[in-house]
Write a structure and sequence with these properties.
By secondary structure, the chain is an all-alpha fold. The chain is built from two helices and no strands.
Length: 59
């Protein structure tokens, strides 16, 4: 990263094969769910586990 935006820390990338991020595909999955229109159905299905004052869905 050459330019810092907001409060995000500088990312350090190594090519050694250690410390691989297990959530690398999470953004792709979230955006696919949003584009497919499934986010409302998933949110409704998770409603029984959501705490009363929660802002985000569980999990």
């Amino acid at each position: 990263m050459k330019k810092r935006i907001g409060s995000y820390p500088h990312a350090h990338v190594e090519g050694g094969g250690r410390g691989i991020v297990s959530q690398a595909g999470a953004v792709l999955l979230v955006e696919t769910v949003r584009k497919a229109g499934l986010h409302g159905a998933i949110s409704a299905a998770l409603a029984p586990w959501r705490k009363a004052r929660a802002v985000h869905d569980p999990g």
